[in-house]
Design a protein that fits this description.
Shape: globular
Distance between the termini: 39 Å
Number of helices: 9
Radius of gyration: 23 Å
Strand order of the largest sheet: 3-4-5-6
Order of helices and strands: HHHHHHEHEHEEEEH
Strand content: 5-15%
Length: 325
């Protein structure tokens, strides 16, 4: 069974019963919330999904057409509940603006982050509750629990304020890393943590292996079943390939790259610019070492691996020609 949520997504509309959660709380800010992106390529700076773009409105239904459909679906009682929660927060925003408390970009970004992350977590709470209902149903039957593999995953990660972003697409860790939780009472010891490099293309081969079915040779992923015992096979992959094709959506250029356990190389091939990071020394990816002479040997190895993976995954050569309009 596939149960697919799109809840934690724009326009980030939490269920009404969750709207009042966290109003008086202050969430910790990510370390790179105020990142000035110095040293990165222009590709990191020209995207249009900065938190700064998410300004509150007096009435979302009046000022933000993308939300009209959600407000239009509400009953009069639901709409009153929505405005009862949201309007005081927006009125406080305009009072702060009038009193000069949000006059500089740092203060504004900090304020918008709190509004953004609270809605985000409210929606996560709602999704978590619904997943809990599914697990409760499975757990109510001991045989069903024992013989059911539960997998929680995603299509990508997401920036929740890191580098000042509120989106995905770029190859930085927050967008590239994806959740992957598995529960299989007959096959995974409780508390198992796996640090092998896995990808979403591994899910189908994994399901087939669990079902004791053969994995077609043309599948490019690998079954993670050997990892579930807690030991990584000696021939497990040492690098991951990444490719973003949707040129200029949100002003993000097409790019590709390779990530190893420690390093990352990103190629924005539409303008032939590069970024490279040492994830051990620089886990927040704020220091682009592509042009650092001390990184030259590692850079050569990364470029070689980048080219090898393009062959492994049969990346079409025409991909790297002029971008689509």
């Amino acid at each position: 069974m596939l149960v697919q949520y799109k809840a934690v997504h724009v326009p980030r509309m939490p269920p009404l019963e969750y709207l009042d959660r966290y109003i008086d709380d202050t969430f910790p800010e990510p370390a790179t919330l105020y990142d000035d992106l110095a040293g990165r390529t222009e590709n990191a700076r020209r995207v249009n999904f900065f938190l700064d773009n998410l300004r509150p409105r007096k009435r979302y239904g009046t000022y933000d057409p993308s939300r009209d459909i959600y407000l239009a679906r509400m009953t009069p009682d639901e709409l009153r509940a929505y405005h009862a929660s949201i309007d005081p927060q927006n009125e406080e925003y305009w009072r702060m603006r009038a009193n000069g408390l949000l006059s500089d970009s740092t203060a504004m970004r900090g304020y918008v982050y709190q509004r953004f992350i609270k809605d985000y977590v409210r929606i996560v709470d709602a999704m978590d509750d619904q997943i809990g209902r599914l697990l409760d149903r499975i757990d109510a039957d001991p045989d069903l629990r024992a013989n059911t593999v539960v997998v929680y995953a995603s299509d990508q990660g997401y920036f929740t304020g890191e580098h000042g972003y509120a989106e995905k697409r770029l190859m930085y860790e927050e967008a590239m890393r994806m959740p992957l939780l598995m529960r299989w009472p007959l096959g995974i010891p409780p508390g198992t943590e796996i640090d092998g490099l896995v990808q979403n293309i591994d899910l189908a081969p994994t399901f087939l292996s669990i079902a004791r079915a053969s994995v077609p040779e043309d599948m490019q992923g690998e079954s993670v079943v050997p990892l579930l015992s807690g030991e990584t096979p000696s021939d497990w992959r040492r690098s991951l390939y990444y490719h973003y094709y949707d040129h200029n959506r949100h002003q993000v250029s097409r790019h590709a790259g390779v990530r190893t356990e420690r390093h990352k190389l990103i190629h924005f091939y539409t303008d032939d610019t590069w970024e490279a990071y040492d994830l051990e020394a620089d886990p927040n990816e704020v220091n682009n070492v592509y042009s650092d002479p001390d990184f030259a040997d590692e850079l050569a190895a990364l470029k070689a691996e980048y080219a090898r993976l393009q062959e492994v995954y049969e990346v079409p050569p025409e991909t790297f020609e002029a971008p689509f309009d």
